[in-house]
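B., you asked whether I could sanity-check this one before it goes into the benchmark set. Here's the sequence:
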Amino acid sequence: MADEQAARISEAKRIQIALRQQIVEGERAPGAPLVERSIGEEFGVSRLPVRQAIQGLVAEQLVVPGGARSAATVRGFDDEELDALSVVHATLERLVIRWAAMRRTAAQVEVLRQIVPDVPLDGTADPAVIRRAVLAFREQLFVMADSTILDELNQLVGARVTQVITHALDPSVAGHYLEALYRAIAMGDAELAETILGDYISPGKFDSVKQG
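And here's what the prediction gave me:
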């Protein structure tokens, strides 16, 4: 019995992680229904671990719970929350970038370099590739910063921040931004890295996501 329960928990966690990634990368857009039967078929599991995974995403504030006859849905954004997330995003990113630049190791910098995508000279870029690179780059910065406090803050708001980042992402400039930011961090120039970040994160960064 205990082994079966552990297996269900493991399945639920696996599905929760996969659904979270789909949501923050924009594959499941705000308002999209999360139908337990369909998701169960997609992952080859029963509805119970899917339901548990969705409950976990509700706790992360990425999903709005459904009713008796309606499916849960991917949570959207209201203007007030977007304004708050914009401030949280800018503050948290400045801290993690500064600490990453100061605490970097050669091995960590190499990992960061490998994440930076190749951007075509004509400015075209695959949005999905850029989106994944931005999220992987951000994740690596937290590893480099090596801060329990920043990790805890990111656990509280990181899922919502990364979700909105993907919706506001401009692939035509994001790849070049990562390249410039990587070079500043590789040199250990925290002030330059913050300046580059400031140029990229404008006060209206998330305006494009706001409801009309």
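One thing to flag: The beta strands are 33-34, 63-64, 72-74. Otherwise nothing jumped out at me.
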